[in-house]
Each structure stands twice: as C-alpha cells, then as structure tokens.
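Recap from last week: sequence in, structure out.
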Amino acid sequence: MASTSKCPYCDGVIRSDEKNCPHCGAVNESYVEDTPRTVQQPRTIEELKEYCAERGMPLLRMRFFIGEDYREAKAFGIYREGRNVVVYKNKADGSRAIRYRGPDEEHAVKEIFLKLLDECHSRGIYPDGAPVARSGGSSRSGGKKKRGGGCLSALLYHPFRVFIALMLLGVLVTSCTDGIAHRNDGYFQRPGDDKVYYHYGDDWYYTYDINESGYWYGTNDFPEADYESYSLGDTWSSDWGVSDFRESSTWDDLHSSSDSSGYDSWDSSSDYDSWDSSDSDWDSDW
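Predicted structure tokens:
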C-alpha cells in the first residue's frame, strides 16, 4: 500500500509508488516499489520511507514529512542538512522545535520513528503489530476423594463429568507449560546499548526511554544469541532510565485479551481514514 506526501516542486499530492509526480512530472524522491513488507525497524531515512509505504501510511494527512524540510505549522519531520540529519517539530504557532541535529542518522530515524509509532498507538493504530494476550493462568480445584475405581466408573457413566475432567486437565497442562514458558522472563541489556529489552514468554520487547505512553515495542529477537549473559534480572530499576515493562501500556495490552495469537497483523489502511491531526499536541516541544 502506498503512502502519500507533497511534491516539493508543485505541492501536489503524490503517492510513494509513483515514480514521477502526476501533476508536474518531477522525479519522486520518495518513490518506493510496491513490495511485501521487509522493513521492521528502520535505521535510515530511506528505510523509514519504505516502512511507511509498505503500511500504506498517508503521511501528508498524518503530518509527517520524511526527508523533507517542511516549513508550515503542525508537522513532524526529518531531513538531511549537509552532513547532519535534522529531526524537527513545527508547532501550532509555526515555531520549530529541534529534536535532534547531528551526524547520527540511525539515532535521528529512531527519534522520528518512535514518535510516529506513539502517534499511531494513541489513535489505536498499530503498524508494528498490536500485542494481545497469551492464554494461560492457573486454577485450583478441590473436592472429596473417592477410593478405588469409583471415580473412574462415575466418569464413564457421566459424559458431562468426562468433559469437565478434560477441561480441568487442560487447565493444569496450560498452567504448567505457561510457567515453563515464562521462567526466563526479565530485563536484558547489552553494555553501551541504550535499548533495554524484556523477555516475555517466547517474545521480546524493547524501549529506549521513558515516553508518554510507556510503550514497549515488539521485536523479533534479542541482538545476541547468548542473551542470558546480558540479564539485568526480573525486577525493574529506575536507574535504567526506562519505564517498567510490567507497568507499561504494552503489559496492559498483553493482558487485556484472551487471544493467544501473539501479534495481530495489521494489513489495512482503513484505520487511517479517520486520522485527525488536531488530536496531536502541537504546542509541546515534542
């Protein structure tokens, strides 16, 4: 799905899958071929363009200007300025707040990418995949003991009791396997890395710093195979400079549904149809 932006030459709306502007014919510098999604964590401006295009983001409506020094009010953007990369926000009054200006493109892209996700998440849109809860839990049961084959014979003559017994057995198995799956839950970090990771079951999440929503982002894996040697423990510390995973909105999302599918894949642009840019806080610096 193609994203949309504004042509820097004629100000016409242009799609990311159009090689040339349909209005003036200029070469579309944001052109991205319509290919299956391949970018999960963009590290360059070009990868960020691909990420947005693959998910059909209407960037013009969203007020995100990737690779463009947009000067009008109410805009988030990133662009190259000589050897530097600039990340900015144009406030409602037209003034500009610089989030980052420097040579580290990956850091700059990270700043605007996290803001892009925050704006989407605040509207209930999850281009990175909506986390949902895993099934699991524990159950306690009690009752009078029966001797000999009385219990078995009673079950054989009462199909409903067989059903109940199988259900209880399923709960017991689920509880045991759930405990095994989560025995390695906890925080992990590589020395010198600003990311802190959390291992939850078979999944990984990461965050950079304490943000407004406290959101942790899903990722495929920890960047090192021997992740256990990078453990910080299972108890959060404020010294790490990140939000507590178990107090985050991600944790709430994981436990707000009984769906066990892990991540819901997002493959529709219809969620953006009701995007209202006035919902963003245009008066703050970021």
